[in-house]
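Example S7 (structure tokens).
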């Protein structure tokens, strides 16, 4: 039974016929009715590069779609119910698939504590994406990102459609936070603070490289380092059981999707930090790593290496790699044991 429900704004038709195929960009959000999913979908509706927005959730997708579809921008918005055909229809033809589906932390939990629940959610959504949108850019937001990204990779490999250039763990929030926290210390405009953050997306795997910023004096600032590595915990604690970062994450996810669309539409020099299948530390058994990545029409065009590190940063990186290796292995093992 085809259970997808549609909520379409008529204005799109004019644009659809006048735009070239290259300019038609369907973006799908899986988990669209959640704390991140709703504001993320809102921001995507405001993005003129998005022409077709598909909102899927196990509950509430059509309601969120109906609401957002009244916003007077040209894109269509379609909500989908949780049936296999609804999920397939949400995914079909997508250029970008964002996955914020999954449970968030409560105080006292680590991101790894979410693994048991979120691993199977991400695995099943990855299977659907591999079948219905094998060429899409897959943007994984669901935690623990260090493990959920390898899970998606293993599923796409098993289905014979893995393209490492099109799989991204969204770590944008780490650089968003780093630039904001630095600007608070330096009394500067965060837009001018370009802080490189490498590694992964949890605790000590988040490695800011202040030596490469315009404030090398911040290397060794333990309080700032803690805020960047454990910024997510600040929000979890403040929300006091009601979840983790949603609004700042929505902004970060929308920024990353916008960068991919810009690059797909021919803009050069678009670079974002992201957790990808990376050659940088494969010799140490670490197959995925977040660093700056230049984006292009085919996804991840060029993976930039971490550059010159301060001795303290090198120590942080060593600790990061040890944890990251275990997190990645956990995701790979999960799929091997629970295909
Ligand atoms: P939430 O509980 O508010 O929303 C999750 C949504 O996912 C819900 O609407 C739920 O119905 C839906 N969902 C659950 N299983 C699904 C499935 N199989 N298919 C489709 N939808 C499904 O949680 P949230 O606050 O939006 O957080 C979502 C995830 O994002 C969490 O795992 C959280 O840890 C993670 N997160 C990641 C980052 C990051 O920087 N990468 C930042 C913040 C949160
Ligand atoms: C974050 O960094 O805010 C997210 O990963 C959510 C969390 O659990 O902290």
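Recovered sequence:
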């Amino acid at each position: 039974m085809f259970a997808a429900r549609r909520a379409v704004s008529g204005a799109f038709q004019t644009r659809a016929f006048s735009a070239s195929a290259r300019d038609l960009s369907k973006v799908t959000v899986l988990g669209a009715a959640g704390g991140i999913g709703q504001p993320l979908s809102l921001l995507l509706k405001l993005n003129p590069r998005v022409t077709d927005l598909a909102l899927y959730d196990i509950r509430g997708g059509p309601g969120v779609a109906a609401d957002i579809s009244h916003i007077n921008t040209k894109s269509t918005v379609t909500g989908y119910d949780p049936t296999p055909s609804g999920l397939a229809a949400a995914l079909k033809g997508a250029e970008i698939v964002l996955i914020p589906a999954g449970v968030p932390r409560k105080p006292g939990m680590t991101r790894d504590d979410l693994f048991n629940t979120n691993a199977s959610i991400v695995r099943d959504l990855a299977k659907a994406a591999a079948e219905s949108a094998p060429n899409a850019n897959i943007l994984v937001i669901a935690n623990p990102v260090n493990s959920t990204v390898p899970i998606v990779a293993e599923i796409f490999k098993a289905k014979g459609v893995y393209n490492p250039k099109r799989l991204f763990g969204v770590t944008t929030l780490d650089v968003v936070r780093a630039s904001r926290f630095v600007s608070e210390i330096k009394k500067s405009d965060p837009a001018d603070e370009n802080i490189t953050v490498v590694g992964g997306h949890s605790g000590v795997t988040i490695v800011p490289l202040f030596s490469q910023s315009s404030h090398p004096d911040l290397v060794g600032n333990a309080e700032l380092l803690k805020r960047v590595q454990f910024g997510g915990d600040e929000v979890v604690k403040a929300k006091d059981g009601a979840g983790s970062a949603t609004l700042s994450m929505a902004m970060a996810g929308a920024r990353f999707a916008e960068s991919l669309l810009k690059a797909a539409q021919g803009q050069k020099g678009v670079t974002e930090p992201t957790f990808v299948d990376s050659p940088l530390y494969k010799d140490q058994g670490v197959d995925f790593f977040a660093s700056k990545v230049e984006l292009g029409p085919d996804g991840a065009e060029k993976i930039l290496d971490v550059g010159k590190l301060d001795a303290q940063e090198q120590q942080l990186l060593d600790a990061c790699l040890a944890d990251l290796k275990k997190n990645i292995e956990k995701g790979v093992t999960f799929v091997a044991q629970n295909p």
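Notes on this example. The chain has two domains: 26-171, 172-327.
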